Each structure stands twice: as structure tokens, then as C-alpha cells.
Amino acid sequence: MRHVLVFAKTPYAKTPYDHWLAGSGIEPVILTTTEYAAGYAHLPHVHAFDRYDTNQIVEKTALRLARAHAVEAVFARAEADVIRAAQLRDLLDLPGQRTASAFAFRDKVAMKDHLVGGPVGIPAYRLLDSAYTAVEFIAEHGYPVVIKPVSESGSLGANIIRNETELDAYLARPWRGTSQIETFVPGQMYHVDGLIVGGEVVFVHPFRYVNDCLSFRANDWVGCLPLAPQDPTYGRLVKAAEAVLAKLPTPAHTAFHAEFWITPDDRVVFCEIASRTGGGMISAMVRHSFGIDLDKEWLYAECGLPSTLGTLAYRPTGCLNIPPSNGVLEHLPSGGEPDCVREVSFTGAAGQEFHGGVKSGLYLAGYVVDGETEDDVAANMDKVAAWFSERTMWRPTESGTGGTL
Description:
This protein has helices at residues 17-20, 57-68, 82-92, 99-106, 108-115, 131-141, 164-172, 232-247, 282-290, 294-302, 374-391, and strands at residues 2-8, 26-33, 46-49, 73-76, 125-128, 145-149, 159-161, 179-183, 188-197, 200-210, 222-226, 254-262, 268-274, 317-322, 326-331, 341-346, 353-355, 365-370, 393-395.
């Protein structure tokens, strides 16, 4: 039996690796979080870890297992696993994305370094190595600016700094890890998701964010809406994504999730890109829209298995990620959803205490919603958000910090 080592920071329902590999002669060796271990418990090789993102026993165990099972490939679809998977491939000389490529797709300063002077606009930026750098950067470029970690996802730790008071508030309690500072870019944000197999883009589609990636800070939902192929913005965003991929050390097989703004003066400006599938409900949305499971096809490519991609059909389908409120969840509506709902995902249950949204891709309730047109989907997303809000019940915690969606 052949083996693939899988860093599995997703619940089994989303990534049933054994089901995808059934009949292939390849068996997955799973490293996962304690939270998700029960879903994979029926598999013969499952290893679970507390504090998965930062626990370095994960890497030590991965090396031991990779050698013991003579794995032929390493698969990792989560941002937290991109670097550790690449380093393991380097160490064992396995095919797939190597560390230099992973770093370019993970570190927001490094990725922009690759794009300087290219065909896609980028904001002015600098590694934030001290408060002096922040002061000097703002003196040169003015407010507003954005300070964010160089290697987080889902807008975690991102701060829009509009004036000196906000700068002082940030500097008094800065992000503990490495950060960057860049000029604020106004405009509508979009994302482009796709799949590369054998060095060729085999799937790509742009989407518009509904609300924005910082909506979770106000415990509000963020959604994704596909652009119609005839939308004039469609081709511009696809071209921009392909130009970015051409400038980066892009691996032969990878999914990608890129973000861009289109500014009020109609410029396409790069935000960031990741060598993985999008977070939240994006993969589920793509599956319902096009009939393609990006994670499965990406896994097949990494394992050298033939693609199951056929002719893609398109049905307008969007998704929304609804974060928790502050308080104890008393009732979570399940069943009786509006007819436009095609898939539902919950990450919590009644009786749990929450403290609001954490990052844009982390949700309490996720929905995939369809419609006859993109405008129908947008209206249905609002309908589902309102339906959820009306039926969800919260009570304050003892400290009185509870709220409602």
C-alpha cells in the first residue's frame, strides 16, 4: 500500500481523504487537531495534537511517520500547514511545493517583493520592524495605513490606522509576531480562486466580497458572490491573478486564493495570495457552482492520480459566513432554511459561550446559497442572514458581555 501524509486541519466531513482515495491504492496518514480527531478515528493512521498550529511535536511526528510509511507525497490545505509541509518535502526530497515557494505565498512582504515592478499594482509597503518604521512610513505616505501580521490569514490581527490616536493605541499593544505596514487601498475587494495542475491553470473564477473581510469585528457576516463571465471585471481579475502567479515561484500543483481591490479610479490592486483553497465556505460554494471539489482535485494532482475534472457547468451560487456574537448561544436554528440554501455548516452548538468573531473565515454558521442570477444570489444571501438572525437566541454571560447577531 502506498501512502500520502496529510496535515488535516479540517473536519472529516469537509475533507474525507479516505473516501477520495478509495480504490487508488493510496492510504492517507493523518495528522490533525484534537478537535477533529473523532471524525478521522475510523482510519488506521491518525495522530491528533493539542495546540496544533504551534505545537512542534506535529513536525517531529510528521517526519517519523513519513519515514516509517515511505510516503510518496505530502498534502496540506490549511495556511498553518503550508510551511511545515514544504519543509518536510525539502527534508525528504518529496515532490510538491518547497519552502522557498511556500514562504513567498505565506509571507506578505516576500510576496510583494516578487511583484514589485510587475503588471499588477501593489500598495506601498514595508516590514514593520519597529515603531520608528511606522512613524517614518506614515510621514512619507500619510494616513490611513494598514498594519497586519505577515503570515496570518482571515484578516486576523489586521488594523486600519486612520490617525495618530489609533497609531498610539496600536503601538501600546502591538501584534506579538512579525508585522508589515502598507498604504490603505480604498475600493471593492474581490477574490480569485483556482487550481493549477501540471503548471497549467485548469480552473479559475473571480468572486466579489459582500460586506468586507473585517465584518467579523462587528459580529457581522461576510459573503462571497461569483462574477458572471460577462461581467467586465471578470477578465481583468483573472488576468491579474495569472500575472501574479507568473511572478511568484508557483508550484506545479496547487490551489490558490488571491485577493484584489478595484479602486474608485478603476485600478486593480493586489492584496495577497495563498497557495491553498479559500477559507470559510468558499470550497463548498465552488463545488455547488461548478461541480468541482478543489481540495479533492488538488490532492489527486499531488498524489499523481488522474483528474476527475469534466466539463464544468455554472450555476450562480454564493456563500456567507456568520460569526458568533458575544454571549451564550441558547438556540441555533437548524431545519426550515429558505429554499435557496444548498449547504449548511455549524461549528458550535447551544450552550457554548462565544466572544464574537475571530477572523473572516471562521464562522458559527456557514451557508451556501443559490439563485437564477448573481443578483438573485445576493438577495438570497441577505434573506438567509436575516432568517438566521431572527431565529438565533443568545443570553448575556455573567459578565454582561452578551449580544445578538
